[in-house]
Write a structure and sequence with these properties.
InterPro entries: SPACA9. With 242 residues, this protein is mostly helical. The protein has a domain of 164 residues. 75% of the residues lie in helices and 0% in strands.
């Protein structure tokens, strides 16, 4: 978008220089129309201006100002091509861009368009010139510039809406994260007690196993003594015995 704005500023600077020479432009169109014997019909297209300059322009001043007009129109066409690659877009921005491309088409009839306030290019013409000859051609560039500015405004608004939607989705996910935190805490708190219970149960099993082994070992000793025939005599107190 910054590249688009830079290109637009450059075109506006060139147009300001051209606007200061509007009377020179009208004079060049008048001279070339006379040379072409084409005094009846209005100057109604970019291709018509190109034709006058290529075939009926006899002095460098007229050629310079006509070429300046054509160069600005060409720069606007290139800018429109650049706008086509800018995202995001919707039906409004597409309609504005389509209008710009139509106005800048070399064969498009410009005789019915008029630049309105705050532009005063038409006011600098006589009534006859504005109505019948040059009203459309002098209105072309300011109307296209206004359309491009409108396109930029809508595109920036659409970009902000997209960013808000994206940031809104992120905040939703962040809000859902703390809800899961207590569950993780419960799990972390219950995990040691479960481990302790398992460990205690294992210790009890080990004690039972040890006691059972002792009982088995005692029984084994008794059985061994009985089989070997060695039995302990009953205990007698010390002293004489019968």
């Amino acid at each position: 978008m910054n590249e688009v704005k830079d290109a637009l500023r450059s075109i506006e600077q060139n147009y300001k220089l051209f606007l200061q020479q509007q009377f020179t432009f009208i004079g060049a169109l008048q001279h070339t129309r006379e040379n072409a014997h084409d005094m009846i019909r209005p100057v109604a297209s970019i291709s018509q201006v190109q034709f006058y300059m290529d075939h009926h322009c006899n002095n460098s001043t007229d050629r310079r100002i006509l070429n300046m007009f054509l160069n600005i129109c060409n720069d606007l066409s290139k800018l429109c091509q650049k706008l086509e690659s800018v995202q995001p877009r919707n039906s409004t921005t597409n309609d504005i861009l389509g209008r710009c491309k139509l106005l800048l088409s070399h064969s498009n009839n410009l005789s019915s368009i008029r630049a309105k306030y705050p532009h005063d290019v038409v006011n600098h013409l006589s009534c006859n010139e504005a109505k019948n000859h040059f009203g459309g051609v002098v209105s072309l560039i300011p109307i296209v510039l206004d359309c491009i500015k409108e396109w930029i405004t809508h595109t920036e608004k659409l970009s902000r809406e997209v960013l808000q939607n994206v940031s809104g989705g992120n905040s939703t996910s962040e809000k859902s994260a703390p809800q899961g935190a207590p569950e993780r805490a419960v799990i972390s708190q219950t995990a040691p007690s479960v481990h302790l219970e398992i460990q205690t149960s294992a210790n009890k099993k080990d004690n039972v196993q040890v006691q059972a082994n002792k009982q088995v070992w005692k029984k084994h000793l008794n059985d061994t003594e009985s089989h070997s025939g060695k039995r302990k005599s009953p205990w007698k107190p010390p002293g004489r015995h019968a």
